[in-house]
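Much of what follows relies on a compact textual record of a protein's fold. Think of the row as the fold of the chain written in a discrete alphabet. An example makes this concrete, so a full record is given next.


***
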Amino acid sequence: MGGSRAAFNVEVVDSFKGRAKGLMYRTSLPKFSGMLFLYPREQSVSFWMRNTLIPLDMIFMDASGTVVSVHANAIPGDETAIFGGNNILAVLEINGGLAKTLKIQPGAVMQHPRLDQKKAAWPCKK
């Protein structure tokens, strides 16, 4: 893969309850940490910032790990729906502004062992 690379230490949430809570009530997030929301199948997703205390970037990906959209600097406490797109399988939340700093934008690819490696644009090494 060409271009820049960055590694994140992520908490994976793959249950309805875990996805519903997300990063609510957290007062900080280490710089290269985040939360990876995984869905059982690709679908349309929207997020909000209810009870979320820190600004976040939301990176919406399809089943291949390709970034479909990025919502930068979601406002803490804002309950406005943030539509991530159709056919979304995973969403990575990181500190607000970090996606711009790292030049993460639509078309970028991410990898994670929980993605189906047969569909992955950037498979994990075995």
Remarks:
- The chain is about 10% helix and 40% strand.
- The chain has one domain: 9-101.
- The longest strand covers residues 33-47.
